């Protein structure tokens, strides 16, 4: 039997090695979500997509991804999170190969939908596995900082890789690059991640409830991502149907003997408020990433590769700040204060972008707000993640992880739909009035950045009002370990 002095080493190595595997799987799905953006014109030219049809290269991924996160998060609790994670990696990698060899529109769209399924299976259980691996608050803060740094940096890195691969090779390689990454991550997951059997399907396999919530979430994402083409009336109709499905699901969960979703989860002020703040924060940031790339290409005339290179300071800054400062800052000042500081920086960065000129210069007009946004996101994301996950019990960790990822997708889809629609409407109106195309396009983007500033400011106000630490009496006991002091008890 090993001595006490010998035992901590393998346990510590195993946990941090497991974190590397989880980050690798997450990085692959996040890279893929952003790498497509820069390659869209090349895909359209090669496969002959129409303007509205091209949107389905993105929508076909987002709808199953956002719709299934909550369901597969719960299924991960029931059948085992390691099994769900590894299965998701296999599905995502196989679907990526299908995308890479696609030679027609139908194959690519179908393969993208399958990627969304695999991405949901992988992403939904990651945070639940992470908080189980690192129950001690200080170590958990460090682990979340690493995980968040990989996710945030991966988003910006995807823009660079998309431009580099598309310009030097072709768009097929933005998908084929996932094959070696996925195989290595899958093998590492099988070997390194600790097995967990789950509590069994009989403990929560509410199939009617699963059908209701999956249908509601898919319809919600579909309504959001297609709002610009469908018009207000059609979008409101779909939104009304999705609300009816959500209502039916809620009634079902309140009455079911073994509910898919325990409604007590939403009694946590930290969990519900953090998810609400995240929707707004991601809405602004995802919209910035998409519209910022368009601003560089369509207004400043950057190539795909130069656009990707222009975004590189963001992942570098995010990685340095998250890995070097986030955990220590949260440990010293608490997640509430760090979250507010991060949201304030994001608001300031968006405000600077809202004045982006037609003849803008990178060093003066793009880099300063880019660094502000990177610093703000590096502070805010680990803080809001810790607050959200601190509100879930161990048996609900997979479900809480799925819920957290679901709000990311909904926030990103909502921000992208609203901001791009506003920008396009302003641009079309100005061009119709005789304005120059580039000047009108820049004005449309400025409007979008101005609205994003308002969204970020709203997230700041919401966090300040709802996530303020409660009185000591309402704080979870210290032995709860993984729960933050800022969290209200269930």
Automatic annotation (TrEMBL):
Listed GO biological process terms: response to antibiotic
GO MF annotations, alphabetized: transmembrane transporter activity
Primary site of residence: membrane
Cellular component terms (Gene Ontology): plasma membrane
Coiled coil ranges: none
Secreted recorded as keyword: no
Membrane topology: Multi-pass membrane protein
TM region positions: 51-72, 84-103, 109-132, 144-165, 171-193, 205-225, 231-251, 272-293, 305-326, 338-358, 370-390, 402-424, 444-467
Location within or outside the cell: Cell membrane
Major facilitator superfamily (MFS) profile domain span: 18-471
UniProt keywords, alphabetically: Antibiotic resistance, Cell membrane, Membrane, Transmembrane, Transmembrane helix, Transport
Top-rank lineage group of the source organism: Bacteria
Protein name: MFS transporter
Natural source organism: Streptomyces albiflavescens
């Amino acid at each position: 039997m090993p001595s006490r002095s010998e035992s901590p080493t393998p346990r510590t190595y195993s946990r941090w090695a497991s974190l590397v595997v989880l980050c690798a799987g997450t990085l692959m799905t996040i890279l893929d979500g952003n790498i497509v953006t820069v390659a869209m014109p090349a895909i359209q030219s090669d496969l002959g997509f129409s303007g509205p049809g091209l949107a389905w290269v993105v929508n076909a991924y987002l709808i199953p991804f956002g719709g299934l996160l909550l369901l597969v998060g719960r299924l991960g609790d029931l059948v085992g999170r390691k099994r769900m994670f590894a299965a998701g990696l296999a599905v995502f990698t196989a679907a990526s190969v299908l995308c890479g060899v696609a030679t027609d529109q139908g194959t690519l769209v179908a393969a993208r939908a399958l990627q969304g399924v695999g991405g949901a299976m992988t992403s939904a259980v990651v945070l639940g596995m992470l908080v189980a691996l690192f129950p001690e608050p200080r170590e958990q803060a460090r682990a979340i900082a690493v995980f968040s740094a990989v996710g945030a940096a991966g988003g910006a890195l995807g823009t660079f890789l998309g431009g580099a691969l598309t310009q030097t090779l072709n768009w097929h390689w933005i998908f084929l690059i996932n094959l070696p990454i996925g195989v290595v991550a899958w093998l590492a997951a099988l070997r390194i991640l600790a097995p967990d059997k789950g509590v069994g399907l009989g403990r929560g396999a509410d199939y009617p409830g699963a059908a209701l919530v999956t249908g509601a979430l898919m319809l919600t994402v579909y309504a959001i991502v297609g709002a610009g083409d469908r018009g207000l009336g059609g979008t409101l109709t779909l939104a009304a149907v999705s609300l009816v499905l959500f209502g039916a699901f809620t009634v079902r969960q309140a009455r079911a003997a073994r509910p898919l979703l325990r409604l007590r989860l939403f009694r946590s002020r930290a969990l519900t408020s953090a998810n609400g703040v995240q929707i707004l924060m991601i809405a602004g940031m995802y919209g910035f990433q998409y519209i910022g790339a368009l601003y560089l290409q369509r207004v400043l005339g950057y190539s795909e590769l130069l656009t990707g290179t222009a975004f590189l300071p963001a992942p570098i800054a995010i990685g340095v700040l998250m890995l070097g400062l986030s955990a220590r800052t949260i440990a010293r000042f608490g997640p509430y204060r760090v979250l507010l500081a991060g949201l304030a920086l994001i608001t300031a960065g968006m405000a600077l972008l809202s004045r982006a000129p037609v003849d803008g210069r990178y060093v003066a007009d793009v880099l300063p707000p880019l660094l502000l946004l990177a610093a703000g996101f590096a502070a805010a994301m680990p803080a809001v993640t810790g607050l959200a996950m601190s509100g879930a019990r161990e048996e609900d960790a997979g479900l809480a992880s799925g819920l957290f990822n679901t709000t990311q997708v909904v926030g990103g889809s909502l921000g992208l739909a609203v901001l791009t629609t506003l920008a396009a409407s302003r641009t079309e109106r100005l061009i119709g009035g005789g304005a120059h195309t580039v000047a009108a396009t820049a004005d449309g983007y400025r409007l979008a950045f101005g609205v994003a500033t308002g969204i970020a400011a709203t997230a700041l106000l919401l966090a300040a009002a709802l996530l303020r630490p409660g009185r000591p009496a309402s704080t979870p006991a210290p032995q709860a370990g993984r729960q933050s002091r800022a969290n209200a008890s269930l």
